[in-house]
Fold:
Amino acid sequence: MLTDIQPGQTHRATLMARLAESRQYDLAIVGGGATGLGVALDAAARGFSVVLVESHDFAKGTSSRATKLVHGGVRYLAQGNIGLVREALRERTTLLNNAPHLAQPLPFIMPSYQWWETPFYGVGLKMYDALAGKAGLGPTEFLSRSQTLAMLPTALPKHLCGGVKYWDGQFNDARLALALARTAASRGALLLNYCRAADLHYQGGKVAGLVCEDTQSGKTYRIDARCVVNAAGVWVDELRQKDGDANGGDGRRATKPMVAPSQGVHIVVDREYLGGDVALMVPKTADGRVLFAVPWLGKVILGTTDTPRNDLAREPLPFKEEVDFILNESARYLRRAPSRADVKSVWVGLRPLVKPQDEDGDDTKGLSREHTVLVSRSGLVTVTGGKWTTYRAMAEDVLRRCAEKDLLQHRPDGVTTHLKLVGAPMPGVAVQSICRPPGIHSYGGEQGLVMGLPGAQRALCDGLTEAMVRFAARFEYAVKVEDVLARRSRLLFLDARLAASVATQVSEILQQETGLDPELDAFMALTQHYLHLPS
Structure:
């Protein structure tokens, strides 16, 4: 177990000791996904004192289960939502510049199997280029049949007329979340995973902080804060139900749900099904949905679905019809379509779609069609909706809203526009494509730090060394086997069987580093979820 704590390390006992200190924070945040971490970083960069608590692990929920695309939203262009597309394209460029080791440009091919598809979609994508302006990643190109097959050799050739090539971006979502957390910590923020917000507390009828519980020890803590932001994604309504805003904190009222969750399923197969570093995008499948085949960390992601779901399971399972949809639609566009036997991992995320809110006692302000910020009468600030690409703009919206309500002092926007995230390499230093298998390159400018740890030459499997596990425990808040194999490395998402095969070794290293129970048995059970294909 570690005894010498150095700057940048995330030894849990030290973090919990800081939480126990008697002080008042400017801002307390509930939720360690893209939204909460984005708010934490922006606030800390403005000089506010910040504490963030997450009931599970950072990016455990939706924020580690994205389609891995940093995009402006082509479908929003078709809907005429020009403002939203402009914002997303601007934020796309900012993200790619601030974390080039974790977010990079990616070419997409939209194959045409009807004569009209190339000109129809091509014109729309030319408009996409025009909106991006100088922030564009590459020009849209009209492709012949032979050019399309040269760039996308696994595309089904029968009836292929041609295609359109355009550019967007891709990223490593869970590792980006960690980069946000660690960058916020470098600016003084205190961030804690496995620390549940159990309740709110009040002063003078207004929210004055949180009561939280360390889920590892069961110990409770009181956090005093001038402002509390509820950024728990699809789970925001849980804290809203605890907000006694109707009577200034001395009573609880029924709160109308704000979120209608939608389930997105992704299937991972071997790289050979796509055959290169170019993504496939089908804008309109048989039932009108979008289909992606995206090269990512040496594998291919197929998805996604959009299915309403009533429960808020932490590890939702795919429905049979969702798996059938992805595999059947893939067979319509790929020369050799994958079957159930070819699936390496399947994972499900819940999107927080925002229901329209009435004016019944809540001060509601929808800042865009993508995300919503709501301030209750007792001062609880709730933000949900949105997408990874615009996390930074969402954070600015939240802090602007807090200032409007006099919950925080107004301080200018823009402090994170050019703020490089932890691990971003020096300008001019080459980075390896995210399409390629994972390895030491995933650490960007911190590669040397990882290589200096014990076990740098001991590979547990391709792309994962003993030193990487130690780095996760010492610098990246990892406590459990799942933290390492699902989110510090992405092995569970890439190949669940391979993840299970190295779990015992990872558990032993974590035990040495933290002295805590790494919950090996729970992880072994979890791997079965990522192999579950209902039939």
Q: What stands out?
A: Residues 121 and 183 are 39 Å apart (CA to CA). The first strand starts at residue 24 and ends at 30. Residues 1-5, 246-251, 359-368 have pLDDT under 50 and may be disordered. The chain has three domains: 12-62+175-258+355-404, 86-171+260-351, 440-529.
